[in-house]
């Protein structure tokens, strides 16, 4: 590591970057031309930084890169994210490990087994799909078909029935027809994404997609985005309601608007409001969900026999 790590997040969680750059070369994305090819950090460097963060009181590590699932392929000749997770799980003080930005074609059986067997690895994964029509995926230079993606999700849910899959969709990519857009709506309904970010396609100078014919009108992109977001919002509400009565660990982050209230996050990135003492800030506490809305939950502390330290 060069220089001392500066923690810009709250004291109790931190991003841990495990690689730089990207070699996927999606046709809408300028990152490879800006940041260069994918380059993994060495395992020793990552583990050293994670230990330092744990000593500073960090409880949650969020592993990030442009493509976390490619970790190790350039240094070790194989995907090594599962091995890295096992090393990080052995660090005292770290309680949660979260994965962002994984690509379906690089989700190995070994990685799924590790996520399922290591208690510190949250059953939460970010799989940015972008679209569900194979012709659009090909034009985007994505490396997984819609069916291959569904198969990966099937494997993830088979080993971890409670896993939450976060994703990203782009609407209005050049050449996208109404029928193509319906494919995205269909996969959302079939897979049941609980959390998703959706965007209108916009040109990025220097990218192949910016020069493609059949650019979609702005009005149509807006209409499609509204339809998709309404569908996703309904799924978020449905999932939140399914959590009613369940007890789950919550990492409390800040004081709520009402006196005596704290706001925390569940392993599934849901905000939850709880009447609980301020001494539990930055701690993980078991909470029973008592109310559910689209954007947040409410809950009650079921016991003080928790992970607070």
Describe the structure.
The chain has 9 helices and 13 strands. By secondary structure, the chain is α/β, with parallel strands linked by helices. The protein has helices spanning 31-35, 43-55, 73-76, 81-89, 109-117, 134-140, 146-159, 178-191, 218-242, and strands at 13-17, 19-20, 39-40, 60-64, 96-99, 121-126, 164-171, 195-200, 247-255, 261-265, 271-275, 284-292, 296-301. 32% of the residues lie in helices and 23% in strands. It has a 6-stranded parallel β-sheet, covered by helices on one side.
User: What is the C-alpha radius of gyration, as a whole number of Å?
Assistant: 20 Å
Taken as a percent bin, the fraction of beta residues is: 15-25%
User: How many H/I helical runs?
Assistant: 9
- Helix/strand/pairing category: alpha/beta
Strand order of the largest sheet: 1-4-5-6-7-8
Number of E-type strands? 13
Sum this structure up briefly.
The chain is α/β, with parallel strands linked by helices and 309 residues long. It contains nine helices and 13 strands.
Question: How is the secondary structure organized here?
Answer:
Layout: E1 13-17, E2 19-20, H1 31-35, E3 39-40, H2 43-55, E4 60-64, H3 73-76, H4 81-89, E5 96-99, H5 109-117, E6 121-126, H6 134-140, H7 146-159, E7 164-171, H8 178-191, E8 195-200, H9 218-242, E9 247-255, E10 261-265, E11 271-275, E12 284-292, E13 296-301
Parallel strand pairs: 1-4, 4-5, 5-6, 6-7, 7-8, 11-13
Antiparallel strand pairs: 2-3, 9-10, 9-12, 10-11, 12-13
Helix pairs in contact: 4-5, 8-9
